[in-house]
Each structure stands twice: as C-alpha cells, then as structure tokens.
Amino acid sequence: MISTKWLVVEMVLVIKGLRGIKELRVDGRGTLNAEGRMALPAFYDMHFHPENAFTLRRTGENTSSTLQEAVAKWSKLRDLLSVEEIKDRMKKALLLELYHGVTHVRIHVDTCSKDLKSVKASVILKEEMKDLMDIQTVSFPEQSVFKCSNDFTYASQLTDIVGGKPDAEDDIETSIKHLSYVTMIAKKLGKNMDVHIDQDARRTRFAEYLLSFADMHLALSHMSSLHYEDDDYVRKITQMIRNKRASVISSPLTGVYLATEKGYPKGRGITRIRELMKEEINVCLGNDDTQNVFYPFGSGDILLSLFMAINMEQSFNADEWIPLVTYNSEKEFSTTSNPGKDFVILDASSMREQMSTLAPRFMVIRNGRIVAKTNREARLLIDGTSLDPVMLMRSLTG
C-alpha cells in the first residue's frame, strides 16, 4: 500500500509537512495560510453517469430498488432530452464534483440514447470543460449492443474508451457474444476497455471470460458478484486480474442501494474491495449516480463513496484508503497532466477527522488556480459562550 507521505509531500510539491500545512503558493500571489489543514492531490471519480444526475424528480422513484426498474425509467426520459439539455445537466453535475475536489473524471455515456445524443454531448463538454477538469468518456451500451439501433462502433470512435455491459443481454450466450463484440471493436480502434461486469448477486463470471482473451488494458467496473463467490474462485480470479494488470472500479453508493436481495440477510452489493487491495490489485472508486433513479442521494462528493467503502469493509485506518480516489485512480486514468498542480485542501487536519465530519473541502486548486472554496462558520452558542464544534472534537481526539 502506498504511503500517505507520497500523497501529501511528493505529489503536491508545494506542500510543507505531512499533516499540518502552514503556507502554500497559489496564483503567484504570495502565500496562503492553510492553518494546519491536510492537503492531498485532487480527487478522481473513476465511474460516473452525469447525463442522468439529478433527474429523480422527472423519472420518479425506483420503488423496487432494482437496476432493471432504474434502466426502464431512465430510458423513457433519456430519449426526450436534447443534446444541449444533456450537456447542460452533465456540466452542472461535474461542476458539483469539482467543488468537492474532483479534477479528473471518467464518464460512461449511454450509446442507446436516441441519435447518440449522450455521446455527442459528452464530446462537446469534454472540450468545453478542459481547463477545469480532465474528462474521459466511455461508450456505454445501457440496454445492450444488439437491441439498440445506434452504431456502437461509431459511438466508440467518438469516446476515449470502449465500454460494455454483458448483464444487459437476455442470456449468458448473448452476453458472451456481447463481450466478444465490444472487445473486437476496442482492438480495431486501439482503445482500452472499461466494462460494467458481474453487477449483481448472480454468479455470472463474465470477468473471467473477458480476462481470458482481451489483450488491451481492462478496467472491470462493479464486479459485485465477487462478494458472493467462494474463496477458491476469488483467489483464481484475483490472480487473473493481477496477471492482466487490470483495474477494478467499485461504486459503493449505488452498489449498496441496488443490491438485489428481497429480504434478509442482504448482500453488501459491492465487490471485495479490501481483499483486492491486500492482493495489490489496483482498485478505484466512482460515485456512479447522483440523485437519480439508480441512487436517490448524493451531492457529487467522491468522499461519500470512500466513506461507504471504508465502513462496508470495516477498515480502521482511513489513510490506507486515500489511494482509491488519488494514486490508484491516476494509474488507471493514465495521465501525467497537471502533476503537482491539482490538489485539494481538506477542512480537516487528518483523514480520520475528514471521514468523521464529511466537511466540504476548504479549497480546490486546478492547475495552480483556486477553483472552489468554502468558508465554514460553525458555532455552538451556549450560555453566552461561542464554541467551535470542530475544535471541540479535536480537543477530544487529539
């Protein structure tokens, strides 16, 4: 596991000290007093669907809390939206992610949207937001590559990465054909792949098949079914992932919400994150969905996903999990843009404090420029005395 010292000192060269930073050069205007707050490289969201963010009011609620109902309701709204409407929604959702410290994001865009409107909107938006955020786009066949009338090959030409969703097909045989088809396209285009795979309680094992023959870089998104597999199989698939140097991307918020069990006990809905980390698999996190029919809550804060992952995996040391939204994700994103220039200052002196308060970021800096900040004014007013609740907590934990 990478040390937090690398994250705070080497990646962010202008930061002085491991925990409490005192001053920081910003915008060439001298120094900024950070007053002992913790600084990190800016965050990555490695799995996000901004096109349907904040659409819950328009789609209606997911009464069954299932992926199937979510897809059905979203697809009805999706085809009513224009390219400009989709782009505008995407931009607003990504600006909220920026506010929370994300400067690199991988978005999956629905290739089943009418006339590829989602894909076209993402291409325009990527250029429009390049000064604020690095965006990678993935061609995502929400409702199958065979049932949609759109040309998936053309859609994949427009995106950075080729996606897939074998679970969208009606049977295992067609799902296998799906994987062969999208892999053929990726190879033809010379692109990497990021596939929604093994998403629920069914032990489909599509990841094993894909790993056995795909010769480009792979990211395996979700892999929730690994939670239900026996340990012998998990060891086998983990070895395959390691040999392939593939990444696993988990979305804990949506995964937990869409867990398919009807009754108790319920599965956790996420892959074996902690176990994969111990086996040195490159694991990353994504928000996936924000206030839509797939997941009804959220604000664009990737630390909510990190919070869920840490709790679901019963971890004590929050520092060990920072790489899932920084270093690990940087490796998967495969970019060296803005080294040492994108970072976030937490309104906390440690990751334990940040995970306890979930406070908004104190400041977000993109390419050396302040792009977001929060001025906190929290007080306890008791018997004529004004107390800072955060300082009160620090007095107890310090």
From TrEMBL:
<dbReference type="GO" id="GO:0016814">
    <property type="term" value="F:hydrolase activity, acting on carbon-nitrogen (but not peptide) bonds, in cyclic amidines"/>
</dbReference>
<dbReference type="InterPro" id="IPR052349">
    <property type="entry name" value="Metallo-hydrolase_Enzymes"/>
</dbReference>
<dbReference type="InterPro" id="IPR011059">
    <property type="entry name" value="Metal-dep_hydrolase_composite"/>
</dbReference>
<dbReference type="InterPro" id="IPR013108">
    <property type="entry name" value="Amidohydro_3"/>
</dbReference>
<feature type="domain" description="Amidohydrolase 3">
    <location>
        <begin position="179"/>
        <end position="371"/>
    </location>
</feature>
<protein>
    <recommendedName>
        <fullName>Amidohydrolase 3 domain-containing protein</fullName>
    </recommendedName>
</protein>
<dbReference type="Pfam" id="PF07969">
    <property type="entry name" value="Amidohydro_3"/>
</dbReference>
<dbReference type="InterPro" id="IPR032466">
    <property type="entry name" value="Metal_Hydrolase"/>
</dbReference>
